[in-house]
Hints:
Elements lengths: L2 E7 L6 E8 L7 E10 L2 H9 L13 E9 L11 E5 L14 E4 L4 E2 L6 H4 L3 H13 L18 E5 L4 H7 L7 E5 L13 H8 L2 H7 L4 E3 L5 H12 L3 E6 L5 H8 L7 E5 L12 E5 L10 H23 L7 E7 L1 H12 L6 E5 L4
Parallel strand pairs: 8-9, 8-11, 9-10, 11-12, 12-13, 14-15
Antiparallel strand pairs: 1-2, 3-4, 3-6, 3-15, 4-5, 5-7
Helix pairs in contact: 3-4, 3-9, 7-8
Amino acid sequence: MATQKGLLVEEAAxxxxxxxxxxxxxPGPKQALVKPIFVSMNPVDVFMQQTGILTMGMPAVLGSxxxxxxxxxxxxxxxxxxxxxxxxxxxxxQNLCSPIQxxxxxxxxxxxxxxxxxxxxxxxxxxxxxxTAAFGVLVGANVTLPEAGTRVPKRDEWLVVxxxxxxxxxxxxxxxCTGMRIQSGSLVFKGEFFRRSDPALQKAAGLTLQQxxxxxxxxxxxxxxxxxxxxxxxxxxxxxxxxxxxxxxxxLAHEAAFKILEQSSAGTKHFTTTxxxxxxxxxxxxxxxxxxFGELGRDGDIGKHVxxxxxxxxxxxxxxxxxxxxxxxxxxxxxxxxWQALIEAFxxxxxxxxxxxxxxxxxxx
Length: 365
């Protein structure tokens, strides 16, 4: 059996180790074999490494966002060809499909082909964010996305995005291409495995959060540090109650979301969230949707739903990215290449030291 180099975590909370005996896979009929060039990190990477949850068991090859080049295709793979540059999020926690190794498997229907207007680095910072936002807005709240290239006039309907300064929030705000107006608040949330970082760092970051949200395309901002009642009043004063959807991209703001939805004049109200635990009571008259993107590629009803919707929306979103109506998130490329550099970058990210989305070059084209 052919083997290859990559990173392995032997047990939950264990360190990443460089190994050279990982199995090298052969693509199935509708799969492609991809050589990752860039990878980036998300909170889910820290979560999997620390807990082992979402993995198929330990030892585990992890990872999420990537961009890379197709080096092989299956017998029925018609959408991808050898040499194509692709990007996406992998099937989380599935060793053969994880991008922190020399090659890995992708399902051809679940990846984006890179367009000329974005770089491979930007592609590597896009998959998890844009697809999670798509589930929160398009799937969970049934918001209509026009075809790429279609100009839609602004209408008097708002979408409220909580956690707009993060990667998922950035892409959620870009639902403005649906014609909706966007109001967004920003949650400062950094730290090692859900631990709050130093208050001084939060304060420094908070100085630019409003500008960051507006730069992503929001029409108005929201003071997330205010009480839920005050946030609701602020939303009402700006939107006049003309909204039906609150998307919590932070997984932390259900209290504020429910107060805000009390101000909605819509007949049907939607609360969509990246919080998969949902340890709260949803108010009467509010439809709830949990984004469970971590189930991509898995068996079971939720996994099938996530996989089918991802296959449906990937080409649509790719069209908007190519047209520039959906734009990449701000990022920084880590100063160092290769697998050991990825380990060091992950440590910095897990300790809350990254100010932007971190992308690491692990191999060359």
